[in-house]
Each structure stands twice: as structure tokens, then as C-alpha cells.
Known about the structure:
The protein is mainly alpha-helical. It contains two helices and no strands. 87% of the residues lie in helices and 0% in strands.
Amino acid sequence: xxxxxxxxxxxxxxxxxxxxxxxxxxxxxxxxxxxxxxxxxxxxxxxxxxxxxxxxxxxx
Length: 60
């Protein structure tokens, strides 16, 4: 499940970057804002997964 969450985070980050770039290219501030929000959502999800991995006990 964690791999799925990590992939979803990467997807959100990529989608956000693309929306930001398109918004910047066409001069649409609303699209840029949506892109920033999507990218932030992905960043938060990635941070959550990283924290969960850090708290996981090591298998030996």
C-alpha cells in the first residue's frame, strides 16, 4: 500500500508542475494556483509517507 501512496504523491507532484507550467505559459493565474495546490498536495502526501517509513521498525 505504501508504494501505491508514494506513486500517487509523485503523480500529484507531476500534475501540479504541469498545470503550473501551462498556467504560466498561457497567462492563466487560476490554473497556476491550481497547479501549486496540486503540487503541495503531492508534497504533503510524500512527506507523510516518508514519516511513516521513518517510524517503521527495521526488519532483521
